[in-house]
Amino acid sequence: MTRPASDSWSLPWMGLGLSSNLSASDVPHPYRLLDASPGLFDFVEYSAPIALEEARAQATLFPEMWRRRSDVPVLFHPVHLNLWGPELEPASALAELDAHARAVGSPWVGNDVGWWHAGGQPFPGYLYVTPPFNDAGVRDSAAHALHIQAGLSVPLVIENPAVLATRGGLHALDFMAKLHARTGLPLLLDLGHLFSHQLSAGLPLRTGLDGFPLDQVVEIHIAGGVVTRRGGRTFYVDDHTQPVREELFELLAEVLPRCPRLRAVTFEGDGHPPEVALASLRRLRALVPKESRASIDIPAAREPVPALTGDSRPLALFDAGHGVTPATEDEDPEGTRADRDFRLAVVAEQLDKDWPLTRLLLAAAPEGLESFTRSREYRGLFDGLGKSLSHAFASWARKRVMAAPSDGVAAALSLEMMLPHAFLQAPPAPAPGQVALAEDVRLGSFPADLTELVFAIRALRRHLTGRAWACGALEVSGLEALAQVAARPGPGPWRFAIRRKAIGFEVLTLPPEVAAGLQGLADGPLPVEALPRWLLAEGQARGLLRRA
């Protein structure tokens, strides 16, 4: 296992940073933002797979990050690294993690203390399970953290996790202080995660800071989130696409002078348009001025790796968060329900990318979603066989259709299983004077006409969402109408267009004469004059066509 070469680590001053998933399609684009406003921030903290080659293959901005890393330093924040859970990371993963961090020059690696993945499969939406804040949780988290640190030649920086259900009796900051004392590892203080604990526990925002070892904090995170109230409780949901709460800006200003070893402040602005990210970064730049500071030395962690006991019951908390066990059996029933609702929402959002029709027909209400997350198919995701959430849902849906046959639901499932196959081959580009289908568009055909079902699902989503804004509840009972529509498909063959989105596919219903007229383009480009003017205008207006 890798060990630090000396008794101390040297940590450089990083300054103010912006987080990124290194995807060219995501906002904000960190390098465009920095080019437009030089000096706006100093480094990029990026999330990517643990293995360097996997990150190169998946992150479309990786080449630019790699090219500019000498001028724009980086911190590596892995997308999933277990700092708690029933199993330790394999030695091969730790070797890849260390090689990745050293290759990009990341002076440390940070991650939330939580259970992120099982069998190499991350939980949907990277929504980890938080350990209980008790001595058992400290012991098991320490086993994970020291095991990881033993495989790293750079420091592991441990981050306080986000909280909805409060379990274990310790304050979140006391838990992290004990974990630091047990491991000797430096700390990353996430202000939004702290806010989530304080609200869930019914405590003032600054509770626990006076006794917390702020002198061991080397990085601070600040990000957006949503505060909601349920009954007598208030919860903070960590959602980086949301605006930063004013309370967190104020807390950052107060905490900064109390962190003498602080090396970095990171704005996790994932999903913020550049003009919005610009406003937040300018405000943060005033708190963290651009300057050069000397490196500092901190003691290298050399604690022995303890045994993983499992006394903190990770599998039981996984079951509580996915509806396998009743919330009433948990230590914090109301917090568990909030946590479960958030998990179900994330699962639904992920499924709707590939199964917008089938998911609403079979798992629209919480009961249906819980039926899926309690299923053998969902649990089988995490057995190391490399299956995806989409694959698990398809297997579960097929079983449901077989158990309660419905021609309409079976047709919707068959349609959505067919869509990815339309994009297995890339069509030739049009030559001058030719017209072709748009690059992200294909034509499809199906033996039953589901035009009305596609329309009904979109219309009912819009209707029920609008009513929810007014009445404060989503009337899921209204989705019963979909069963009626699904039961009356029209006669085929049905022709339609398919659009590939960033993730998933969209079925585009077309008037029969448009679908028939475009059919000639299914085999490749045609001369512009081969299409009637009205069809050319219609296809271009719908974004279905491209010309050379």
TrEMBL record:
Pfam families: MbnB_TglH_ChrH. InterPro entries: MbnB/TglH/ChrH (IPR007801), Xyl_isomerase-like_sf (IPR036237). SUPFAM superfamilies: Xylose isomerase-like. Transmembrane segments: none annotated. Signal peptide: none annotated. It comes from the Bacteria. This is DUF692 family protein. It comes from Corallococcus exiguus. The lineage of its organism: Bacteria, Pseudomonadati, Myxococcota, Myxococcia, Myxococcales.
